[in-house]
Amino acid sequence: MNAATRELQPFHLAFPVTSLEQARAFYGELLGCPEGRSSEHWVDFDFFGHQIVAHLAPQQATPHRNTVDGDDVPVPHFGVVLDMDAWEALAARLRAAGCDFVIAPHIRFRGQPGEQATMFLLDPCGNALEFKAFADRSQLFAT
């Protein structure tokens, strides 16, 4: 069964942050992700229908970088595939907020299979996020 014919299930991701207050400001306020359960050590967020959990962990490994279509992509990173209108609205909101992008919003693999809009940014704790969109969602796994 391919991704186009099955119902997408929400993923769960737990990741380290150095400050729950900064995580709440970034994920809750800037990105607009509703907050779920929490404790003094972690916070759940509804990340575009997926469950992410920011865990207080002041020490974490230094990220790595790999080149993808000319971009210096931070690894590890996580994100979400949005529809193009939502991606453009988010890019505009982040630009208006003065976001410092790791990789500014642009089109990757232009004119090739898998052409996509992409942007990367860091949360206040140094976690890398990618937001992408496809004009044609069937290109998500194109080779």
Automatic annotation (TrEMBL):
Annotated CDD domains: VOC_like
Pfam families registered for this protein in UniProt: Glyoxalase
The cross-references to SUPFAM superfamilies, in alphabetical order and at most eight, read:
Glyoxalase/Bleomycin resistance protein/Dihydroxybiphenyl dioxygenase
Q: Where is the VOC domain?
A: 9-134
Question: Which InterPro entries is this protein grouped with?
Answer: Glyas_Bleomycin-R_OHBP_Dase (IPR029068), Glyas_Fos-R_dOase_dom (IPR004360), VOC_core (IPR037523)
What is the protein name stated in its UniProt record? Glyoxalase
Source organism (scientific name): Oleiagrimonas soli
